[in-house]
Amino acid sequence: MSKRRLLAISIALIVTVAATAMWSASTIVREGDADANSIEDSGSAAGNASEHKGGNKVVKILAAPFKAFGRLFSHKDDNKLQRMTEKDAERFQSVGVSRIEDSRTPEPKRLALANSAKEHLANGRSYLLNGQLNEAISELSTAASLDPKLTEAHNLLGVAFDKKGLADRAKDSYERAVKVEPEDAQTLNNLGFSLYQSGNYRAAVDRLKRAAKIAPTDERILNNLGLALCRLGKFDDAYKNFARATGPLTGNLNTARMLERFGRDDDAIKYYEAARRIDPNSTIALRRLVDIYKRNGRLEESQAMSNALAGISNSSTAQSSSAAR
Predict the structure, then answer these.
(1) Pair 109, 101: CB distance under 8 Å
(2) Rounded-to-integer distance, Cα 54 and Cα 315, Å
(3) pLDDT class for 13, splitting at 50, 70, 90?
(4) pLDDT tens across 232-253, in order?
(5) Closest Cα to residue 162, out of 172, 147, 177?
């Protein structure tokens, strides 16, 4: 069998395996609360104060082979995949295989033995940031036991339990933290969001309102309060908090997103159209309106939104061409 044929078979095998993995990854449920993820897509912060959400790393890693093949076999005349040439085969032979390093591959972090509550707290915080939840829980539990008034230990312990999916234990830890420090806005936010995730929306609103009173400009707190109010059907109040968090444009978009999630298309349209009045070129609002109008049989309006999107795209292309001259 010729070298070229072996290379072609190898490429086909790699692409097949990668495609299968990509399909599997696409079926993985996105981490975190679905409502919070929905408004985070528009750039709004939500969730626990200590959370740092990134994209789905599995999907990003598995997409890499396709991007690599695209770069390897693309040509300057266009962006389409081209038939492999002898020169391409030589280039493929020169491509090395490297190990992907991410937060899961390094050896687990081991910290020095601690004696005091604050030392255990520092270790627990470090483990939590490193994603070592079991070690974090152990250290933070010890810190909270040695010093029951150490608010941060209870709060971070709640975050660790939340990340482990232990909602009841997380709520208990947040409540202990709030009992020690009742005016701590971030702890109240974490407790409120934990109650929200467990479906206790009225209690969530109560804690989040208290947090917002202490920290009236905190985007995350205001967005969490907006989410909880949506769950109580108080969309006008939710909009006010979304708008306080990130401004009227995003406030309308976030309220519309939630209404759309609850199947209230007519009300969602009102908020998307309100977003367009603020920014006629809001591509998020236009794209959603294209889909909602089409879904509800309002084809002329859907086409009008599609035409508006096309106009924005053509305008951007013309400006780019003009700038390049």
Answers:
(1) no
(2) 32
(3) low
(4) 999 999 999 999 999 999 999 9
(5) 172
Number of domains in the chain: 1
Neighbours of 299 (CB within 10 A): 10
Res. 290: pLDDT tops 90 = yes
In a domain, 288, yes or no: yes
Q: Looking at the domain assignment, is residue 287 inside a domain?
A: yes
Q: Quickly tell me which residue has 């009841």 as its tokens.
A: 168
In a domain, 270, yes or no: yes
**Assigned token pair, 58:** 């599995």
195 with 171: CB under 8 angstroms?
Answer: yes
Q: With respect to residue 121, please indicate whether it lies within any of the assigned structural domains.
A: no
In which band, very low, low, confident or very high, does the pLDDT at 279 lie, cut at 50, 70 and 90? very high
- What is the domain range of residue 253? 247-315
48 to 88, 140, 151, 160, 193: CA distances (angstroms): 49, 17, 16, 11, 7
Whichever domain contains 274, its CATH number is 1.25.40.10
Instruction: Count Cβ atoms below 10 Å from residue 46 Cβ, excluding itself.
Output: 27
Residue-level length of the chain = 325
